[in-house]
Amino acid sequence: MADLSALLDAVVKAPDTMAPRIAYAAAIVDDDPARAEYIQRAIKRAERPRDPSPEAIANSVALEKLEHAHGARWVAELPGFADGYGFRRGFVEDVRLDAPTFLSRAAELYRVTPILHLTLTGAAPVADALFASPLLDQIVSLSLMENQLGDDAIVALAGSPHLGNLRWLNLDFNDIGEAGLEALAASTALPRLGYVGLGHNRVPDPSPTHADEYDVDTKAAKELMRKHGRRAWLSAKPVRAQWPPPRDA
Fold first, then answer.
1. Where are the alpha helices (DSSP H) in 77-213?
2. Is the pTM of this model over 0.70?
């Protein structure tokens, strides 16, 4: 049998590459056929996430049944300090935990599963350390909802050198004002950011509003982009068929 630790290491080191996941599934097909099937089916769904065909629906149903039957066992193989885990493309990619624990122990998770999506609580007291941490380098989506971060923390986030891969960001309920919004719009450290949730803050949410298909730039967004250049998370162009977009869009 292939060296499973080496195969898993390849998955972890290339989290957006499917070949290592496929190789891992092939290596365990005899010893853990349910896990192998789950990985294969999950990759298939990820390749065509909006496929409405009966075959795709059947594949999704089979995935849900496999996760319901075996997911607890698979999660039990991971470190137990997180508050929650979520599967994507056959492996745990989502983790929910408090920010101090993330800073002290995330390296343990990163060695055993390809974490790309992060939900943090209790971030305000450690905001400076969090946004200065290279542990964020690979994170694609980040939810900081209801952390009451305030403008100073958002300024630190906007200037972080470790969020270059970030595409999706939820900052709802964070006591953000004009200074925080201005820092986000002015930032050049978030080149891939396509969505920012800014609901229920001191500053009104400037993101696209619904007309026919979320295709209207708000007045605030136009002014921010006039000052700082186009920002995908502020712009309604191209037309948005879905808003907010899912974390793995």
1. 99-110, 127-131, 150-158, 178-186
2. yes
